[in-house]
Design goal:
The complex is a heterodimer of chains A (about 450) and B (about 425). Chain A is built from eleven helices and 16 strands. By secondary structure, chain A is of the alpha/beta class. In chain A, α4 (about 220-250) crosses α5 (about 260-270). Chain A starts with a helix and ends in a 17-residue tail after the last strand. In chain B, the strands form two sheets. In chain B, strands 1, 2, 3, 4, 5, 14, 15 and 16 form an eight-stranded mixed β-sheet that branches. In chain B, strands 6-7-8-9-10-11-12-13 form an eight-stranded mixed β-sheet. The chains are: A alpha/beta (about 450), B alpha/beta (about 425).
C-alpha cells in the first residue's frame, strides 16, 4: 500500500511542478524521458477481406511444405493452414496448381533513399559527413514515390528494411516498412518494429574518411572508431540510468543533455535497437562479434557476409544472422572470395540464421530467384536442400533478423496475413507473383490493373 | 656448356612431342549422340540427333555413319551453341575497386583505343563465366574523356593465351544524358566528324582523278581518321549507347546520312520508336531486367519490353546489366524475358545467333562449318535449376570449375588441420 502511494506521488510529481514531492522531502522537477517513437506509424491495412486460398502447394516458412493445402485469412490474420478448410462467407481463391509462400521480406534495401530516377536531388542514403552518424534516421530520407516499391511488390515483397548506406562506421537508423503505397513514410512504417542501426566494416569507411585524412583510414582505425563510440554510449547510458535511479529515489537530479547520436547507440545497449552490420570478411565479423561482447550488446545481423561460410560455426554459436547475396562478387577486394553455396553453408549449422537479401532495386524484384540460385547450386554440390528450406532465407529468417518473427515470416496461426500466390514453383526462373497480400489485404494482382499501383513520378509521363 | 646444349635440345624435343600430343588431343574427332540440339538455324530443334566436331569445327549433323575418336551419349540432354556475351569488361577488370586491376578505361582513350592489348585470359572471371554456358564475349572498353570510348574486341573463354578472336571490330560511343553539358553537342560532334571525313574523302577522290601523277602534297590520313573512314565505309560497326527516343532517332538519321553500320546499346526507349528501328534494320543490345526509370532518359522500362521489341521485328541481343563478374546470369535474364512474353526460341537467339550475326562471328549456331563452341545442359538452360554438363570451345572440352569451387571445397571438407592445408 505504501509502495503504491509512493508511485502515485511520483506520477503526480512528474505531471505537475506545483506539487511538492512526497518521500523524501527534496523538490523534484518533472521527470525527463526520451520519446522513443517521435515519428509514429500511421499505417493502416488496405481494405481487407476474409479469404480462403484452396488447394495450393504451401511453403509455410517454418521449413514445412504442405501439398494440396488451404490457407484461411480472417481479419487480416492467418486463421488456419491445412487441408479441406471451409468457412462461411469468405472470399475463395482457387489456387489449384499454384504455390503459396509467406510474404517475402528483404532485410537490406535502399528503396526510397536511393530511389529511381537516380538524380542527385533524391540521393539521400549516405550521410557521408562524419564516420559516426548514428543520429540520422533513414526514415527521414524515404521518398515513398520511388517506383521501385511497386516493382518490388510485383515480386512479392511485403516487408522491407530501408537502411542508410555504408560509408560510415555508424550509418544511422534503418526503418522497416510495409510495402504498401502511401504519400508518407509513416503510412508505410511497420507498427512497433524495432529500429535497426546500420554499421559498416571494411573498405568503405576507411576509403571515404582515409581519403580525407580523417580516422578511419585503416581497418584498425575502423575498430577504434566503433570502440570510442561505444565507450561514449556506455557513459551516456550510465548517466541516464543514474538520473532514472536518483529520480526514483526521490532526488532531483539534473537530466543528462540529450544527444541524438548517443540516443541511438544507447538504444542498442538497451537491447531495443538491432545491429545491421555491413561486413564482408570472416576476420572482421569475428572482431565485430567481440566488439559486441566487449560493450555488452548483440552484434546482430551481418549484411553482405561474403565470407560467412568461412566461420559458419562461429556465427551460429553467437546467434548472428547473416544476410547474403547468392553470387555477387568482385566489385571490391572484400567481395573477392564469393562462393555460390555461401548461404547454404551458413544455413547448414545448427541454430543458424541464413538470409538472402537484395541491396538492389533490381534483384529485390526476384528475391525468390536469388534464393533459388543458392538452392540449386548447393544441391549441385552435395547439399540436399528443398524448397521449404530455401523459402526460410527470404521469410522467417529475415523476420528474425528484424525482430518481427512473432508477426511475419511464416504462415502460422495468428500471424499477419502476408502471402504471395505464385503461378508455379517460386524457385523457377519463370515464376511470377500473381497476387500479393499484406495484412489480409490484396496489394497486387498481376491480372487486375486495379491492384497495380503507380508512382506519382511515372503518372502522366509520355 | 655442351651438356647444357644437349639438355636444351632434349627439353625442346620433349616440348615438341608434348605439343604434338596436345595437338592430337585438340584434333580429337568427337561425336555427341542422342542430343536435343537447338540449332538456331531453319532446322530448329533436332531430337535424338548427332553432331560431329573435328578440328575446332562442326563437321557433321546426323551423319549416316558416325566416325569419331570419342563418342558421347547425351542421353537426350539439350545441346546449344555456346552463349555469346557482349558489352562487358571481361578480362579487363579483375576487382572493380582495385585501380591497378582495371584496364578498361584511360583518360586519353580515343577512337583508336584498343583495349584487347590488356585482355587477361587468366582472369578469375573467365572460368566462373563459363559456368553460365558462355563460350565467347564481345568486350567493350569504357573509354576516356573524348567523344569515342574506343573499340570493342571479341574473345573466346578458353582461358588460353590465344583467345582473342577479333580485335577492334566496332567503335563505341556513349550518348544521351550528361552530368555536365548538353547531349546535343555530342550528337553534333559525331555528325561533324563524319561530315568532315566525308568531305576529305570526296576531295581526295576528286584530286586523284585530276592529277594521278602529282599527289605529293596529300597527307596520309591520321590513325583516327582511318577509323572514321571505316565507319563511313561500313567496314566498322558503330556501337552507340543511347536511351532516350530522341537520341535513338538522331542516330538513325546519321545512319541514313552516312550509311553507317549502326547498333544501338541500352536503347531503353526503343519501344517508342521500334517502327523506325525496324525500318532501318538496326539491331539493339538490351538488358531484360532494367525496368526501372534510372533517369529521365528511361521512363518506359518494363520487363515486357524485349517481347514487345521482338514482336515488332527488332533484332535483339541480350546483355547483362553493366558488370562482368556475374555474366553467367545472362541465361537467367533470358528466362526472365521468357516469363514476360518472349518465346524460348527468340530468347535463345538473343544469346547466340543474333550476337554472331551482328559481330560477324562464325559461332552462335549449330551447323556444319561453324566453330565448335557448344554446350551440353542437363535441363532447360534458362532455368535456375539447370547446369552445364560439358562445354567445348573450338572443339576442345573446357572445364567449368573455378576458384569458387576450390574455396567451397576447402570450407566444406572435414579436417583436423587448419583449412589452409586443404588445396
Amino acid at each position: 500500500m505504501q509502495k503504491k502511494s509512493f508511485q502515485l506521488c511520483l506520477l503526480i510529481a512528474s505531471i505537475s511542478l506545483s506539487l511538492t514531492a512526497c518521500v523524501p522531502s527534496e523538490k523534484q522537477d518533472p521527470k525527463l524521458s526520451i520519446n522513443k517513437n517521435p515519428y509514429p506509424s500511421t499505417y493502416k491495412a488496405l481494405p481487407q477481406q476474409s479469404t480462403l486460398f484452396t488447394n495450393a502447394t504451401v511453403l509455410t516458412g517454418t521449413g514445412e511444405r504442405i501439398n494440396n493445402a488451404d490457407v484461411l485469412f480472417v481479419d487480416g490474420k492467418v486463421k488456419e493452414v491445412g487441408t479441406h478448410l471451409a468457412m462461411e462467407g469468405v472470399f475463395v481463391i482457387d489456387a489449384t496448381g499454384k504455390w503459396i509462400t509467406p510474404g517475402i521480406i528483404d532485410v537490406h534495401s535502399h528503396l526510397g533513399v536511393y530511389p529511381s530516377p537516380k538524380v542527385e536531388s533524391h540521393s539521400d542514403g549516405n550521410e557521408m559527413t562524419s564516420p559516426n552518424t548514428s543520429e540520422v534516421w533513414a526514415e527521414h530520407s524515404v521518398w515513398p514515390q520511388d517506383p521501385g516499391f511497386q516493382t518490388a511488390r510485383a515480386g512479392g515483397i511485403t516487408t522491407l528494411q530501408i537502411l542508410p548506406g555504408s560509408a560510415n562506421l555508424f550509418g544511422g537508423r534503418g526503418v522497416t516498412l510495409r510495402n504498401v503505397p502511401s504519400q508518407t513514410m509513416q503510412g508505410m512504417k511497420f507498427i512497433d518494429a524495432p529500429y535497426g542501426l546500420k554499421m559498416a566494416c571494411g573498405e568503405n569507411p576507411k576509403r571515404v574518411y582515409g581519403s580525407r585524412k580523417l580516422l578511419p583510414s585503416t581497418r584498425m582505425g575502423n575498430v577504434a572508431g566503433y570502440r570510442s563510440a561505444w565507450l561514449a554510449a556506455t557513459e551516456y547510458k550510465r548517466a541516464w540510468n543514474k538520473y532514472d535511479s536518483d529520480y526514483a529515489a526521490g532526488k532531483n537530479p539534473k537530466a543528462p543533455s540529450r544527444d541524438l547520436e548517443l540516443d541511438t547507440l544507447m538504444g542498442v545497449l538497451d537491447g531495443e535497437i538491432r545491429i545491421h552490420n555491413h561486413c564482408y570478411k570472416a576476420e572482421e565479423m569475428a572482431v565485430m562479434i567481440d566488439v559486441g561482447k566487449e560493450f555488452n550488446y548483440n552484434s546482430g545481423t551481418f549484411h553482405h557476409g561474403i565470407e560467412a561460410y568461412k566461420i559458419a560455426d562461429l556465427l551460429a554459436e553467437n546467434g548472428n544472422c547473416v544476410a547474403m547475396w547468392p553470387d555477387w562478387w568482385g566489385f571490391k577486394m572484400e567481395a573477392f572470395d564469393m562462393v555460390e553455396e555461401n548461404v547454404a553453408i551458413v544455413d547448414a549449422v545448427k541454430n543458424s540464421c541464413a538470409i538472402v537479401h537484395s541491396d538492389s532495386e533490381t534483384t529485390i524484384q526476384r528475391l525468390n530467384q536469388e534464393a533459388g540460385k543458392v538452392l540449386y547450386r548447393a544441391n549441385d554440390n552435395g547439399f540436399e536442400l528443398k524448397e521449404e528450406d530455401a523459402i526460410k532465407w527470404i521469410t522467417l529468417n529475415a523476420a528474425k533478423s528484424l525482430g518481427l518473427s512473432d508477426k511475419i515470416g511464416s504462415l502460422e496461426i495468428g500471424k499477419n496475413g502476408d502471402l504471395v500466390l505464385w503461378n508455379s514453383n517460386p524457385f523457377s526462373v519463370y515464376a511470377q507473383a500473381e497476387q500479393v497480400f499484406v495484412d489480409g489485404a490484396k496489394v497486387y494482382d498481376r491480372f487486375d490493373e486495379n491492384y497495380q499501383a503507380k508512382s506519382d513520378f511515372l503518372l502522366g509521363q509520355e | 656448356m655442351k651438356n647444357i646444349k644437349i639438355i636444351q635440345i632434349i627439353l625442346v624435343s620433349i616440348m615438341l612431342v608434348c605439343s604434338l600430343v596436345i595437338n592430337v588431343v585438340n584434333a580429337e574427332r568427337i561425336a555427341i549422340t542422342n542430343a536435343t540440339i537447338h540449332t538456331l538455324t531453319s532446322d530448329g530443334v533436332l531430337t535424338q540427333a548427332t553432331i560431329v566436331i573435328d578440328n575446332g569445327k562442326i563437321v557433321a549433323i546426323n551423319p549416316k555413319e558416325i566416325k569419331a575418336d570419342n563418342t558421347i551419349d547425351a542421353q537426350g540432354q539439350i545441346l546449344t551453341p555456346g552463349f555469346i556475351a557482349s558489352m562487358n569488361s571481361l578480362g579487363l577488370i579483375e576487382v572493380g575497386a582495385v585501380a591497378r586491376t582495371r584496364d578498361s578505361s584511360d583518360k586519353k582513350a580515343d577512337i583508336t583505343f584498343d583495349a584487347s592489348l590488356a585482355f587477361n585470359p587468366k582472369s578469375s572471371l573467365i572460368a566462373y563465366t563459363r559456368k553460365g554456358g558462355i563460350t565467347s564475349s564481345v568486350v567493350a572498353p569504357k573509354g576516356g574523356e573524348g567523344l569515342f570510348a574506343g573499340q570493342t574486341f571479341v574473345v573466346n573463354l578458353s582461358g588460353e593465351f590465344d583467345s582473342i578472336i577479333i580485335k577492334q571490330n566496332a567503335v563505341l560511343i556513349y550518348l544521351g544524358a550528361k552530368v555536365k553539358g548538353s547531349r546535343a553537342l555530342s550528337l553534333q560532334s559525331l555528325d561533324n566528324k563524319l561530315a568532315d571525313a566525308q568531305i576529305k574523302l570526296d576531295k581526295a577522290r576528286k584530286s586523284k582523278k585530276k592529277s594521278k601523277k602529282d599527289n605529293k602534297d596529300e597527307k596520309e590520313p591520321e590513325r583516327d581518321e582511318l577509323v572514321i573512314n571505316a565507319l563511313l565505309s561500313g567496314d566498322k560497326t558503330l556501337l552507340a549507347y543511347a536511351d532516350r527516343a530522341t537520341d535513338i532517332l538522331a542516330l538513325l538519321a546519321l545512319k541514313k546520312k552516312y550509311g553507317l553500320d549502326l547498333v544501338l546499346v541500352g536503347a531503353s526507349d526503343a519501344v517508342l520508336v521500334s517502327t523506325q528501328i525496324v525500318a532501318q534494320n538496326v539491331p539493339v543490345i538490351v538488358s531484360s531486367i532494367d525496368n526501372l526509370p534510372n533517369s529521365f532518359d528511361s521512363l518506359h522500362g518494363s520487363l515486357a519490353n524485349i517481347a514487345i521489341l521482338v514482336k515488332a521485328g527488332v533484332k535483339v541481343l541480350l546483355t547483362s546489366n553493366g558488370e562482368s563478374h556475374n555474366l553467367n546470369q545472362l541465361r537467367y535474364d533470358a528466362g526472365v524475358a521468357v516469363a514476360n512474353g518472349l518465346s524460348k526460341t527468340d530468347a535463345m537467339a538473343m544469346l547466340t545467333a543474333n550476337v554472331a550475326d551482328v559481330f560477324k562471328l562464325n559461332s552462335g549456331r549449330i551447323a556444319v562449318g561453324k566453330d565448335a563452341d557448344i554446350v551440353l545442359w542437363n535441363a532447360d538452360p534458362f532455368e535456375l535449376s539447370s547446369r552445364v554438363v560439358t562445354m567445348w570451345i573450338n572443339g576442345k572440352e573446357v572445364s567449368t570449375q573455378s576458384r569458387q569451387d576450390k574455396l567451397r571445397e576447402r570450407y566444406t571438407t572435414k579436417s583436423n588441420m587448419p583449412r589452409a592445408y586443404i588445396k
